[in-house]
């Protein structure tokens, strides 16, 4: 098997889900056989927004021939990772380079896990929601937009409310009675808005 590990391993984080890794080629005489390529082992150490999973799954990408760089796609935003690189010949793999740590930046969150609308009265509705399954960063706020829908399914003016990230319910007041409303709801990190969920609800006609 090869005798030495690739040296000077460098990681360039391109965005929240993609990184590029570089290494110096090993001297050919240390390959002790036919150089088949390089393998990059990488794994997520922990998410920076929640406790890490106990199970660490190592992923392996193989780059054929005498390449000295490769892309690592499909990373999770706002996480810390480690990687190492090994050279491969027809017999097997050489020793691993020292582990190199890197972090991915924040991304946009997934949609809130649910939006439930309860307690309709003449002029109010109660909204409850769950935080995103994948915050992908530090949540800064929720954005609620809503508008009335009239009997011919035309949409009325859109109202937007920004809600602090630590809230999980809201009572909307001063609504029109016996009116259907459509709601659009999403979470935000410093990077931007995640995908929204929509819901409809109706205020009651009379007490």
UniProtKB/TrEMBL annotation:
InterPro entries attached to this UniProt entry:
FN3_dom (IPR003961), FN3_sf (IPR036116), Ig-like_fold (IPR013783), Neural/epithelial_adhesion (IPR051170)
Print the keywords alphabetically: Disulfide bond, Immunoglobulin domain, Repeat
According to the entry, every stretch annotated as the Fibronectin type-III domain falls at 5-107, 111-207
SUPFAM superfamilies per record: Fibronectin type III (SSF49265)
- Tree of life domain: Eukaryota
Q: Which Pfam families match?
A: fn3
Residues making up the signal peptide according to the UniProt record: none
Q: Which CDD domains match?
A: FN3
Q: Give the GO cellular component terms, alphabetically.
A: neuron projection
For the keyword Transport, the answer is no
Q: Which PANTHER family does the record associate with it? A: CTX-RELATED TYPE I TRANSMEMBRANE PROTEIN, NEURAL CELL ADHESION MOLECULE L1-LIKE PROTEIN
Q: Which protein, by its recorded name, is this?
A: NRCAM protein
Species, as recorded: Formicarius rufipectus
């Amino acid at each position: 098997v090869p005798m030495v590990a690739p040296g000077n391993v460098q990681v360039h984080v391109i965005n929240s889900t993609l990184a590029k890794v570089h290494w110096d080629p090993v001297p050919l005489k240390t390959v002790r056989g036919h150089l088949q390529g390089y393998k990059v082992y990488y794994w997520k150490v922990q998410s920076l927004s929640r406790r890490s999973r106990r199970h660490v799954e190592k992923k392996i990408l193989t780059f054929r021939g005498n390449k000295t760089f490769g892309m690592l796609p499909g990373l999770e935003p706002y996480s810390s990772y480690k990687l190492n690189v090994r050279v491969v010949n027809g017999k097997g793999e050489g020793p691993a380079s020292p582990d190199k740590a890197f972090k991915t930046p924040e991304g946009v969150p997934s949609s809130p896990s649910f939006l439930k609308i309860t307690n309709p009265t003449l002029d109010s509705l109660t909204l409850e929601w769950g935080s995103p399954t994948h915050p992908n960063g530090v949540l800064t706020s929720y954005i609620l937009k809503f508008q009335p829908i009239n009997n011919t399914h035309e949409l009325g003016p859109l109202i937007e409310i920004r809600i602090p990230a630590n809230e999980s319910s809201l009572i909307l007041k001063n609504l029109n009675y016996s009116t259907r409303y459509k709601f659009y709801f999403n979470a935000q990190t410093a990077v931007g808005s995640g995908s929204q969920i929509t819901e409809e609800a109706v205020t009651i006609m009379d007490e």
